[in-house]
Design a protein that fits this description.
By secondary structure, this protein is an alpha/beta fold. The protein has two domains: about 260 residues, Rossmann fold; about 160 residues, Rossmann fold. About 40% of the residues lie in helices and about 15% in strands. Its EC number is 2.4.-.-.
Length: about 425
C-alpha cells in the first residue's frame, strides 16, 4: 500500500514519538509498503537515530515563523560550532559520533529567551508553538494527497496538530488511522486548552477509521470516554532486535560496584529525588543518568556525592541502547498518570538487563515486570529503595544479581519493533480492506 504519515515529531527530533515512527516506518517499508512522511522542517541533525531505508520518502515543510527561526539557528550552530567537539571517551565507537557529550546547563540566557518566546507562543497557538505548523502542513497535505493518491492516511499524535490536519481532509474519503498514544485531553493539558482538546478527541473518534493506543489502560480510558463504536487497538512502544553498537560503554561501568543506569527525561510527574537520597545507603552503589538537561537539584546532588551519582549528559539513541545492555540494573520511574508507560521501559525489556521499577501503585509496568520476572518493583520510598539497593549490592558482590530472573529476548519479542511493524502492517491492511467497495 501507499501510506502517507503525518508526523510532526520525526527525525531530527529525538522524542519518543519520533523514535516510535522512525522504527515503524522502517518496518512498514520492509513489509513492502510505500511510505511517505509529511513533517515539519526543524533543521539540523541528531546523531544516533535509527537509519531509515531510502524508500521512505520524507516531505519536510516550513514549521512556522518561530520554529523556523529556531531551526535556522540550530543549523547555523551545527555548521559553525564555537567550541571543539568533546574528546573521545571510553564509551566511544568507530562511527564518528561522540557518545557522551558535556552536560548542558539547565538554562543559559539564550535558552531562557527561547523558553520565554515559546511560552508566549503557547498562549496564541494550540497546543503550543508547534501549532504554527497547522496552516503550512494543511497546504502541503492537500498537495501530497493530489500528487500521491495514497491508500491510507496516518496521524501520529503528539502534537494534536497532526490530528487537526487529518480532520481537515476527512471529506476525501481516505481511510484515516490515528496513532493516539497519549490522550489529547490529559492531566497536563493547560486549563485554557482543555475544552478544545476534548472536542478534538471527540472528533477523532467520530471520523477515524481506526485508533491506536500504547497500552490497555489507555484503551479502557478512551472507550469509557468515547464509547466502543470506533475500532481501537493497542500497539505498545518497542525495542530493536538489532545488536548493540560494539564497544560502546566499554570501561564505563566498574566491576566492584552496583551500577544503576537511568536514560531519559525527568519531569515533575516522574520523580527521582527519593532514589538520589537512597543512594547514600551504600558507597558501592552508583547511579548514572543520561539526560540532555537535569534540574538544579540533581546537579547539586552530583556535586555532593560524585562517587555515587554520575551525569552522562546527552547520549545518542543508539549509544543509550548499548549502555542499557552493559549496566547492572536499569531504573524505571512510574509516571503519575497510570495510563502512560514510559517508552524507555520497552527499551529496557529488550536490553537483557534487570529493571528496578519505582512506583507507589501496582501499575502496568509493575505487573509486566512481575509476570515476566524481569526485575524488581519497589515503592518510591527512601527506606524501601535503600533496603532493595543493599540487597542488590550484596547479590552483585556474590555474582548472583540475575538469579531467579528471566532476561532473554524470547518472552518479550512481541514488543520488538520488528514484531510491532508486522502487527501494524496487518492492521492497516484490514482497515484498507474495510473501506474498499
Amino acid at each position: 500500500m501507499r501510506l502517507l504519515l503525518i508526523a510532526y515529531e520525526f527525525p531530527p527530533s529525538p522524542s519518543p514519538q519520533s523514535l516510535r515512527w522512525t522504527y515503524l516506518a522502517r518496518e512498514l517499508a520492509r513489509q513492502g509498503h510505500e511510505v511517505h512522511v509529511l513533517t515539519a522542517d526543524l533543521g539540523g541533525t541528531t546523531p544516533g537515530l535509527p537509519d531509515l531505508p531510502d524508500s521512505v520518502r520524507v516531505h519536510r515543510t516550513w514549521p512556522g515563523l518561530l520554529r523556523g527561526a529556531l531551526a535556522w539557528h540550530r543549523e547555523y550552530r551545527q555548521r559553525n560550532p564555537r567550541a571543539p567537539a568533546p574528546a573521545p571517551t571510553p564509551a566511544a565507537d568507530g562511527d564518528g559520533v561522540a557518545p557522551v557529550a558535556a552536560l548542558r546547563p539547565p538554562r543559559n540566557w539564550k535558552q531562557r529567551i527561547s523558553e520565554a518566546v515559546q511560552a508566549i507562543a503557547a498562549w496564541v497557538h494550540y497546543p503550543d508553538i508547534r501549532g504554527e505548523w497547522r496552516g503550512h502542513g494543511r497546504r502541503a497535505l492537500r498537495r501530497l494527497l493530489a500528487e500521491l493518491r495514497p491508500d491510507l492516511l496516518i496521524s501520529s499524535h503528539e502534537p494534536p496538530t497532526t490530528l487537526e490536519l487529518g480532520l481537515a481532509v476527512r471529506g476525501a474519503g481516505l481511510p484515516w488511522v490515528v496513532d493516539l498514544g497519549d490522550p489529547v485531553l490529559a492531566p497536563y493539558t493547560p486549563p485554557r486548552w482543555r475544552a478544545r482538546s476534548l472536542r478534538l478527541e471527540q472528533a477523532v473518534f467520530r471520523h477515524a477509521a481506526h485508533v491506536i493506543v500504547t497500552n490497555p489502560r489507555a484503551l479502557a480510558q478512551m472507550q469509557e470516554r468515547h464509547g466502543t463504536a470506533t475500532p481501537i487497538s493497542v500497539l505498545t512502544q518497542g525495542f530493536d532486535l538489532a545488536p548493540a553498537l560494539p564497544q560502546v560503554g566499554e570501561g564505563l561501568f566498574e566491576p566492584d560496584r552496583l551500577e544503576l543506569l537511568y536514560t531519559g527525561s525527568l519531569y515533575a510527574f516522574r520523580r527521582i529525588d527519593v532514589l538520589l537520597a537512597a543512594l547514600r545507603c551504600d558507597p558501592r552503589v552508583r547511579l548514572s543518568i543520561a539526560a540532555v538537561t537535569v534540574p538544579e537539584s540533581i546537579l547539586a546532588a552530583a556535586r555532593e556525592m560524585p562517587g555515587q551519582l554520575r551525569l552522562l549528559g546527552f547520549l545518542p539513541h543508539r549509544h543509550a541502547l548499548a549502555l542499557q545492555r552493559r549496566a547492572d540494573v536499569l531504573v524505571n520511574i512510574a509516571n503519575d498518570e497510570p495510563a502512560q508507560i514510559p517508552g524507555k521501559f520497552y527499551e529496557y525489556l529488550g536490553s537483557g538487563r534487570p529493571i528496578l521499577h519505582l512506583s507507589d501503585t501496582q501499575d502496568l509496568v509493575a505487573e509486566r515486570i512481575a509476570s515476566l520476572r524481569r526485575g524488581w518493583v519497589c515503592a518510591n520510598d527512601e527506606a524501601d529503595i535503600a533496603a532493595r539497593l543493599l540487597q542488590l549490592a550484596g547479590a552483585r558482590a556474590r555474582g548472583m544479581l540475575d538469579d531467579g530472573l528471566s532476561l532473554d529476548a524470547g518472552p518479550v519479542r512481541e514488543h520488538s519493533w520488528q514484531s510491532l511493524g508486522a502487527q501494524l502492517s496487518g492492521l492497516l491492511a484490514q482497515v484498507a480492506a474495510r473501506r474498499r467497495p
